[in-house]
Amino acid sequence: MMRSMKSTSEQRSTAANRFYEPLASSSTMSRRVGWESDAAHRFRLRHHLALIGPLADVASILDAGCGEGALLEEALRAGFRGRYRGEDILPSMIEAAQRRFASAAGEGEGAASIEWVSWDSLVGGPRAEAVICCGALNHRVGDDPTSEVIAAIDALWARAERVAVIDFAVRSRHHDAALLALADLEPVWRHVRSLSPVNTVMETTIPGEAVCVLQRDRGPILRRHLSEPELTCDRAEILLAAKESYAVLRELGDLATPRAELLRGLAGLQIGGWRQSEVSLKKLVGDPEVGERARLTLAALYRALKRTVEAEALLGLLVRDGNDEARLLLGMVRLDQGRRDEARTLMESIVDPWIAREAQRLLSE
User: Fold this and answer.
1) Is it the case that residue 8 has pLDDT exceeding 90?
2) Residues 185, 236: one domain?
């Protein structure tokens, strides 16, 4: 459940002004937005952009706490050509970003669109494929920086269609500072895990800062490391094991091989579309490549639906052919029926050690 932002818009604006106004006359942009050097600021921005994947493939970026627009400059340099929205609670920052990109001929060239918005809250607003928040949570607002960071992560994650990258200052890495919002790392990390099973919390940028990355599914990571077209079904198989069913369907696209059709059917079962999946799997039972797995999956479906006769008919044939997975599944059907001795006989005949270990676990329950 998303936590509400504890502080009011006025409190956040006052805190931001208190932090940034004394820096307004600094000679470098990095110091005007609260960073110690241009190099450190550039490092953070490039690090965060790398975490969202190949920028040429990113359709839209929300830059929450955009300052003077340095992230957009780095994104364009790295090939970003999508829609960009820069938000900042301070109108002075938005005005500086607008002046900078208006006066620098060609600096925004290539982007599909660029929008600068004075926005007094992280909550609400349009969504984007990728959300980046770099440094915007570092100034102290209320008395509980950890809760403020967690609430901000909630708000930003709700606006991310695919990935969110958010950094914050860590209490245990800093001496107490009156204006810095120093959050406790462990509760933030636990909360990030509760929001998405595909996450990273790292301390790999500037000392004293942590970066959390939340993703909707593992698809982009898999495409980065298993990029060959012939591995499409392998990627989908891993997503299926992670129960990221909709990502399986996106990964397969319009691929029409028997294995792809099988994986679509399995993803459909996870989503709950068992009728369509049953039709698809029946078409595959005679296929030499995937027929055996299609029969096993159909049998598992029939067991779940308590269509025991149909499950037994499919599994009996496979057991006679020496299939250990069928022995395990038929043993589970027998356990469902209370026929424990028959289940034990079946399961103790399993040869494959991986499957035998699962059989032993079931028999010991």
Assistant:
1) no
2) no
